Amino acid sequence: MGSIQQSPKRAVRIAGASGGFSDRQRAISSLAKLDVDVIIGDWLSECTMTLHGAQKVDNESLRAQGKLMEEPMGLFDPTFLDNLGPALPDISRKGIKVAVNAGACDTALLAQQVTDEVKRQGMNLKVAYVEGDEVTDAVNRLIKHGEEFPSLMTGEPLKKWGYTPIYAQCYLGGAGIAEALRNGADIVICGRVADAAPTVGAAMWWHDWKRDDFDQIAGSLICGHLIECAAYVCGGYFSGFKRLQDGWENFGFPIASVEASGECTIEKEPDTGGEVSVGTVSSQLLYEIQGPLYYGSDVTANIEGVIMTQIGKDRVHVSGVKGLPPPPTTKVGLTAVGGYQAEFHIYLCGLDLEAKAEMCERQIRYAAGDAVKELSCFKFSLNGYCPDNPRNQDVATVDLRVFVQTQNRGLVSKATLDVPGFNRWCMDNGLQGCPGWTLGNDQRQSEGKIYYEYYVTLLPQSEVNHRVCLPWEDRTIEIPVTPKTQEFPRNQLSYETSNPIDLKRFGPTTRGPLGWIVGGRSGDKASDANVGFYVRNDDEWDWLRSILTIDKIKYLLDEEYKGGVIERFEIPGIRAVHFLLRDHLDRGFNSTSTYDTLGKNVGEYLRSKWVDLPNKFLHRGRF
Predict the structure, then answer these.
(1) DSSP states of 72-92 as a string?
(2) Residue 131 has pLDDT above 80, yes or no
(3) 292/568 Cα distance (integer angstroms)
(4) Beta-bridge partner residues of 300
(5) pLDDT greater than 50 at residue 1
(6) Which of 196, 419, 570, 609 is spaced 20 to 30 A from 78 at the CA atom?
């Protein structure tokens, strides 16, 4: 391992300004007014990678045919300049650095537009950009040479996927960002660097870490994970949200102080809602992780030993992260055209809802006839329920959703009212329908729209041309792979708890939802779902780790458990148990047939399931 400088600098203060394209637009301006050294942000997701990538392929095809009517504005985040522009005076005056991944599929173009805006405002800020994440050519070449590209979710080779990739984009690390900052960049625009990479790059630059300072870099990687989703770590998606209601309207954005050791302290912008507590930070740590090892292109972080300490109001210190070399591979997402999808909604009310839904389903399937052979997905889901003695008609009303996917566009066309396709299969049965059969008043969803499939696998880092572009010097810097890498098995360490405690020892119990005393957080990575659970007090930890076994999670999932592999590990320092539900979701965001498009409700579903809760824990109050 490398060594820390003899005289380490003070901690670098890094502010998280965005967790996605839908985040609040005030962030960069608000944070630039505070005492921060670097502002980072994440604008990308598997959803946006797929949509931007597919659109880029379409544009290039139309351009080659001479059919592109006008040049698009750019396949980067369309809100970024509106977010950045008002903050530029403070950024320039205070010497704040900015590193973001808003470039998506047009990084160079966004960098040029940022440069133009800087000049328009009369400033002299240097704008660099990072390239190398678009790897379609490399992936296609390797496919031709026999590379199997097994799925990270299922382990099956790419050829079993059944779709042809049209675009590939991989995840870069933070080393390129660090190099850009070392060479004088003020603003670094990236495409698909990993969510935590801007924090890694900023900390590597500030503390002048070497590429093999793995413990320190690993600490910054987990710090980046904590702040890359912005207000998540300050109370967003927090199980204890009810106690934060006085500030629901405006949760603060996070600021992390990353020390030379790699340890960090999380706080939030002052005079805002939300909180930074061991609970909120634990919740965010458990989001979208895959196991005890957190892989990056720069380092692998072991998080089993993480410790969080409340050191003041809205201040949590994070330590205990250990570093290992990064894998020789990086994650890559492949986009393919899936076909067309449509949905139809029927409103049902009151009694006998399941019988009414069954009647609708049988009638619609009968109307579809042999056309079902051309459907890759034909799904009926009854959503909602009527409570006993309902207080009004709306709460007694449920939604029967009919969802289809097909490669035959004609089956989901509404070009004419009498087209013998999906809309008519559903519509035609209204007058012979069940009591109360009610048509949704917006039929646009029953018109087919194109959807995309997304496939996640690994690409050797040696196949990636990671480079930094410094336009003001007309110079490009190649970023080599970390000299020392380490192979890791596909499946991470999974285990049940050691020395479980007999649950009877916790005394009398009351039957109730797990979430009365247990916090949780869940998320997705393609079709994998992860879910972590944590408790508030030390004496509740033995109960949590003893009750939440793999078999218990299967039982609590009930009808949602489809027989997939479930992996488990523990983080004692935050009193947490984590589960990875392999291939649990229906593919990914852009192609799923379910309401839980991002896996965020798996945890809330499981927290609502009933277990025997020790009375002595309940007496402390519910989440």
Answers:
(1) -S-SS-TTHHHHHGGGHHHHH
(2) yes
(3) 9
(4) 295, 324
(5) no
(6) 196
Cα-to-chain-centroid distance, residue 246: 27
Give me the helices (H) in 371-498, please: 422-427
Question: What is the CA 94 to chain-centroid distance, rounded?
Answer: 32
Strand ordering across the sheet containing 566-571: 519-525, 528-534, 576-581, 566-571
What is the maximum span of the chain, computed from C-alpha positions, in angstroms? 82
Interval 221-258: pLDDT, tens: 999 999 999 999 999 999 999 999 999 999 999 999 99
How many Å apart are CA 368 and CA 424, to the nearest integer? 9
Sequence-ordered list of residues with C-beta below 8 angstroms from that of 28, at least 6 positions apart, any chain: 17, 18, 39, 41, 83, 84, 86, 87, 98
First to last CA, the chain: 43
Q: Is 181 exposed, middle or buried (0-12, 13-18, 19+ CB in 10 A)?
A: buried
Consecutive H or E run containing 54 = helix 46-65
- Give the position of tokens 């003020």: 186
Find, among 11, 9, 7, 6, the residue nearest to 317 by Cα: 11
The residue ranking higher by pLDDT, 365 or 589, is 365
Both tokens assigned to 56: 């880029």
What angle separates helix 197-207 from helix 214-227, to the nearest 10 degrees? 140
Quote the CA–CA distance of 470 and 282 in Å, as a whole number.
38
Could you give the CA distance from residue 529 to residue 583 in angstroms, rounded to a whole number?
A: 7
Number of other CB atoms surrounding residue 468 within 10 Å: 26
Report the alpha-carbon distance of residue 293 to residue 301 in Å, rounded: 6
Burial 376-401 (b: 16+ CB within 10 A, else e): ebbebebeeebeeeeeeeeebbbebb
Nearest to 107 by CA among 124, 123, 127, 88: 127
Write out the DSSP string of 106-134.
Answer: -HHHHHHHHHHHHHHTT----EEEEE--B
Angle between helices 278-285 and 214-227 (to 10 degrees): 100
Task: Give pTM, 2 decimals.
Answer: 0.95
Place of tokens 């009004």: 392
Instruction: Please state, as a whole number, how many other Cβ atoms lie within 10 Å of the Cβ of residue 476.
Output: 11
**DSSP letter assigned to residue 1:** -
Compute the distance between CA of residue 368 and CA of residue 370 in angstroms, rounded to an integer.
6
Question: Rg of the chain over CA atoms, in angstroms?
Answer: 26
- In this prediction, residues 65-71 reach a mean pLDDT of 78
